[in-house]
Amino acid sequence: MSTPTRTGSAPAVPDLSGRDLALDLVRVACVMTVVIVHLLMVAVAVEPDGTIGISRALEQQPWFDTGTWFGQIMPLFFIVGGFATITGWRSTVRRGDGTRDFLRSRVFRLALPTIPVLLFLAAGLWLAGALGVDPAIIEAVAAGVGSPLWFLAAYLLCQAVAPFLATCHDRHPVLTCAALLAGVILVDVVRYSTGLLGIGLVNLVFVWPLLQQFGFFLADGRLRTVPRLVLVAVVLVSYGALVPITTWLPYSTSMLGNLNPPTLPLVVLGVGQLALLALVHPLLTAIMRTRAARAVVFLIGSRLMTVYLWHLPLIIAVAGLQLALGIPFAEPLSAAWWWTRPVVLLVVAVLLAGVGTLLGRVEHPRKLRLDPERKPAHVAVWIALASAFIMPFAEISHPLTATMAAAGALGSIIAVVLLNPTRRPVEGVASGSDQAVDQRS
Fold this sequence. Notes:
The chain is an all-alpha fold. It is 66% helix and 2% strand. It has a two-stranded antiparallel sheet. One of its GO terms (molecular function) is acyltransferase activity.
């Protein structure tokens, strides 16, 4: 929901006008899918010799790769994010503001919630090393808890190019998508023909912004006029195309394997997910007319960044607590393991609720505002974006360490300071940004 607007001491009232609540539901469903998938991916076992093993046993299953075609929801998340992004940008333009104001808001809302989790990870990894924990276990844990951080780099990059690409979309929507698609293909060709896999990171500039661009079409309402049979055909063709693409071309058959660096199959998957979203949109809209659905979406959605950033550290923490209490671990993928997953999910959900309560004001600060009268210089906003971007980008190709986490926290702190927030409440203004349009994208 949009940020409540305050005038003096008046109570906060959520403004739902102009929101597509169905997309709020999709956004929450995407993040909850990530939480559940990660819960199933982490398998802890105590070996006969007493050593602790952390594995991703699910990936060894014969159906796993095909399952990722339906469980990989990051393309859809960036599509829905694109809807919110262009809506926010257009709101910024209507107020007479520009790129500086738009990026100031976006970087602030992404950088601020990362500070506590990165400080927590830095302290935890340093403490584990100081206590003499097996370096192999520390490395495995760090790889797990650090894996979601790539999203911050990708999303910050998408926000950085959004004003330019939104302008291109308004003038030449199809041509803009074609140019981005050509970039995706060119990078993949160079990457696989030369064997220099690092070149694939360039596709951060093409794959995720292209998927974001799909969300721009959603915001325009262009898909509402597409016949349902055409949408069904697009879904079938997109998913069907993944078969030859991942069979005859050098792409992984797993959409997880195509994630970092991102590749063409994610774009193809995104086309199918876009068409599928258009198909089920009326149903989702009907669901969101119920008070129960709105309550759940608001409850989770208002803490979405907290859920995303903290769920894996808490999953690992639950495993550590189980180990400390001497509770035996079920054999990964055994019947007992599957039956205990809902229990672990419930425990993690309770812990997430606690963290969300404690850190709620970090994600949605009431006393820290972006005063439109105290705008930082343009260069300060770009430096802030770079400061928040560097560590998550480095984590894509380098395993997380205590030093990296601390550096990332410092980068986010620098970003927030450079954006020049004020502790004085701005009366009558939700923020000096587009938060009244979208708070969780």
